[in-house]
Design a protein that fits this description.
11 helices, 18 strands, 35% helix
């Protein structure tokens, strides 16, 4: 069976995604459209695909089964809607739209025609997502207490005229970028409630540029702080997220996590399970292993453990490979649903709506500074 994909938007990320999609057996890129004909032609040539500059003609191509949209956010709603109405399955880059009402309309159109509609919130396809979820669900480190995501991102390639700074085109940082991490933590912790949000304007310039945002979300067992700042040179760009538990913590590095550090108090069987999941890994023992069980006290409760350890897993050099693997896994998962609607997907249309709902609430609630 073949899946013929048409690409909307021929930028650098589309080319990156195409390389990942082509790793799925049976996938073929058959058409590319972009308002810049040279860009469309360049990407199409690599795939031996057709080139379109007219989106209507592109959608009329009956050879296209699925449309992949990689354009600026303000175009996502209209381009997705037209593709769905043309009978095409749709995978769109985040966000689904600039508001929840439009996203919900896209979901309704897709469901009415039994078409795939999904936004590429690919973080849940990261192997580290499942590992962390396993730690949470099995309470390997006890109950979750608190978490944070800190994104010290680069603006070195975002000049003052870039669409990213224009909320009418991007939706703002919460909507354009934050949806990834609202969805990621919801996958680990379930539904959350927004407590507060802040947006901070860059000082000293005439143009209105919001370059830092923060939100606090309450989950059943604890709160999570989300911070995004786009104000660093590329060389200082870094991301870190941490989940604190009763018996230790997990720290993940990079916005697509590829490296994990787990520090905590474990029983022998828990340590063995983690070693099996995290291969290869490095383990540091912080105290002499005693044949007798060890006991400490926290939150008025005894904690019985065999080992106080730090486990290091993963490597930052894997980032680009991991990103492509996640995109490949996402497409394979979604195509499985196209072939059999009984297939359970890791992400579906609800992820697009729920993550955007949290982002929209943060944007509207935010105290402006």
């Amino acid at each position: 069976m073949k899946l013929n994909i048409g690409i909307v938007g021929a930028g650098n990320f589309a080319a990156f995604a195409v390389a990942a999609f082509m790793k799925v057996p049976g996938v073929e890129i058959v058409a590319v459209t972009d308002i810049i004909e040279a860009a469309a032609a360049r990407l199409a040539k690599e795939m031996n695909a057709l080139t379109y500059t007219d989106y209507t003609l592109f959608l009329a191509d009956k050879n296209i089964d699925l449309v992949y949209i990689a354009t600026p956010p303000s175009l996502h709603y209209q381009q997705s809607k037209l593709a769905l109405l043309a009978g095409k399955h749709v995978i769109c880059e985040k966000p689904a739209a600039l508001n929840v009402a439009d996203a919900e309309q896209l979901v309704a159109i897709a469901k009415a025609s039994s078409l795939l509609y999904v936004v590429n919130l690919m973080q849940r396809y990261n192997p580290l997502f499942a590992i962390v979820k396993n730690v949470i669900d099995q309470k390997i480190l006890g109950n979750f207490l608190h978490g944070f995501f800190e994104n010290y991102a680069s603006d070195e390639n975002l000049d003052m005229q870039h669409w990213f700074w224009d909320a009418a085109k991007s939706g703002g940082i919460f909507i354009e970028h934050g949806v990834h991490f609202f969805d990621l933590f919801a996958g680990w912790l379930g539904d959350g409630k927004l407590l507060n949000a802040i947006t901070i304007q860059r000082p000293g310039i005439k143009q209105t540029i919001v370059d830092r945002v923060q939100a606090i979300i309450a989950y059943e067992k604890g709160i999570v702080n989300f911070y995004h700042g786009f104000d660093q040179p590329k060389i200082l760009d870094r991301q870190e997220m941490r989940l604190q538990f009763e018996h230790g913590e997990i720290t993940l590095y990079e916005w697509i996590p590829v490296r994990m550090r787990l520090h905590g108090l474990l029983k022998n069987e828990q340590l063995e399970n983690l070693q099996a999941m995290l291969q290869p890994c490095e383990i540091v023992y912080h105290d002499k292993i005693s044949p007798a069980v060890q006991k400490v006290n926290g939150r008025f409760t005894d904690i019985i453990f065999d080992a106080h350890v730090t486990i290091e897993y993963g490597n930052n050099s894997d980032k680009q490979n991991r990103y492509q693997q996640m995109l490949t896994a996402m497409l394979d998962d979604q195509w499985s649903w196209i072939k059999d609607h009984a297939h359970y997907r890791i992400i579906d249309e609800t992820n697009a709506v729920q993550s955007l709902l949290m982002a929209e609430q943060a944007q509207s609630m935010a105290i402006k500074m």
